[in-house]
Amino acid sequence: MKINWFKYAAPMTFYSLAGRLIPLFWIAAIVLTTVGLYWGFFKTPDTIGNGMKEYYRIIFVHVASAWMAMWLYGVMVFWALIGVIFNTRLSYMLASATSITGTVMTIIALISGAIWGKTSWGTWWDWDPKLTTFLILLFVYVGYIALQSAIDDTRRSDKASALLALVGLAIVPIIYYAVNCPDPNQCASLHQESSLKRVESNILIAMLVTTLGFWMYSFATILMRTRNIILERERKTSWVSNLPEVKS
Fold first, then answer.
1. Using CA atoms, how far apart are residues 187 and 34, in angstroms rounded to an integer?
2. Residue 181: pLDDT band with limits 50, 70, 90
3. Residue 5: pLDDT above 60?
4. What percent of the chain has pLDDT over 70?
5. Which burial class, exposed, middle or buried, applies to 62 when counting CB atoms under 10 A from its CB (0-12, 13-18, 19+)?
6. Torsion of CA 55, 57, 58, 62, to 10 degrees
């Protein structure tokens, strides 16, 4: 049986689909995050390279949230671009919903990184490219959300914020380059280099499982926010008025 996925481009049909998917993503998020963090906190070595002891375990939260913050920004730009090209209302709604979750992940990454820094380096913050570019990413996220809120006309706010998102996209490869700098002498900072290739397999597995859990959490929250945005923007339509949750 061939499924016509294009029919879900309409807010009405997507609303129903999202409602069925949200519980599945929440279950997957809870299971994967619990397993990943349990494995990372209790089944990994007490000490790893460079003399890092128990405090290194915060990487399971920090790395997962940092990856998600960058990935979600790309997703936000993708939906915003689709909205600009095809003028699809749902695409703008998805971009708006993604921006909130992306902001949350960026804040978690910055806070967990500050905790790591205080324990490992003796300072909460250091103005090096790796940290500063991530702070700029947070500002771009917040700027996107603020711009949408500042313009009452949803069509204008969607297009203006989409333009800002496209301009801000340049920060993502800069962050990646800063963390994976090919020449450490040119990118010297307190922040350690990306070391996935040198990480023990059980640490890497815990990190990836936790990231997958964060990924599922992102899907769940984005779909929930998209449904709320649909209800807000389509509140004057008959199909929204006839929804059981709206009637009650």
1. 35
2. low
3. yes
4. 83
5. buried
6. 140
List Cα–Cα distances, 168 to 14, 70, 76, 128, 136, in angstroms: 28, 12, 11, 19, 9
Q: What pLDDT shows up at residue 190?
A: 47
For residue 48, the SS3 value is strand
- Cα 121 to Cα 117: distance, rounded to the nearest angstrom: 5
Q: Name the amino acid, one letter, at 79.
A: W
Instruction: Provide the residue type at 167 as one letter.
Output: V
* SS3 call for 214: helix
- pTM of the entire predicted model: 0.89
Smallest Cα–Cα separation from 233: which of 75, 96, 86?
96
Distance CA 12, CA 240 (A): 8
DSSP 192: P
Q: Write the CA distances from 147 to 19, 152, 159, 163, 245, integer angstroms.
A: 28, 10, 10, 11, 30
Q: Mean pLDDT, to the nearest integer, of 88-98?
A: 96
HSE at residue 228, side-chain half, CA atoms within 13 A, is 11
Joined together, the tokens standing for residue 30 give: 């809870």
Cα 77 from Cα 92, distance rounded (Å): 10
Give how far Cα 112 sits from Cα of 14, 84, 108, 116, 205, Å: 35, 35, 6, 6, 20
Closest CA to 223 of 80, 26, 65, 47: 26
